[in-house]
Amino acid sequence: MSGLFTVVVVMCASALICSLVQTFVTDGSTKKIISLVLGAFIICCMVVPVKNAVSSFNTDIKEKQNSVKEISTDDEAYSDAVIKQTEINLEAALKNLLLQNNITIKSCDIILSRVENNGIIIASISIYIDKEFVRYTNLVSSIVYDNFGITPNIMTE
User: Fold this and answer.
1) 94 class by beta-carbon count within 10 Å (0-12 exposed, 13-18 middle, 19+ buried)
2) Rounded distance, CA 15 to CA 97, Å?
3) CB neighbours (10 Å) of residue 29?
4) Beta strand ranges found along 15-120 (DSSP E)
5) For residues 129 and 154, is the Cβ–Cβ distance under 8 A?
6) Is the pLDDT of residue 93 over 70?
7) DSSP assignment letter at 133
8) DSSP secondary-structure letter at 26?
9) Contact 22, 38 (CB under 8 A)
10) In the predicted model, is pLDDT for residue 149 greater than 70?
11) pTM score > 0.70 for this model?
C-alpha cells in the first residue's frame, strides 16, 4: 500500500511542478519544446515509482515462499525434539530394566538417527558399566537384545 501512496505523491508533485513551469513560459516554439520536455518528465516520474512498487510486490512473494521453508524447518525441529525425548525415555527404561536384574550401569547412550530418504529411524545403544559388573556383559547384551532388538556396544570404565 505504501508503494501506491508513493506513486500518487510523486505524480501530484510532478504535475504541480510542470504546471508552474508552464505558466512562466511565453507562447511560441519555446512553449512547445517545454511542453514536450515536461511531458517526458511526467512519464519518467510515473515509471520510477511504479517500477519500485512492482519490485516491492515481488519481495512480498519471496517472503511468503521463505515462510514455507520455515514451516518445514519447524517440522524438522519438532521431529528432532521428539527423537531426543525418545532417546531420553529409552535410556531411562533401559536403566530401570537393568536395575530390575540387579545390574547397575554408569550410563547408557541411545542414539536414534533418521534416514532422510526413507524416514527410517536407526538406533544404536552404547552402555558403560563398572568393572565389577563385567561378568554380566552377556546378560546385559541379551536383556537389551530381547527388549530392544539391538545388540549393544558395552564398554567398561
Assistant:
1) buried
2) 85
3) 7
4) 105-114
5) yes
6) yes
7) G
8) P
9) yes
10) yes
11) no
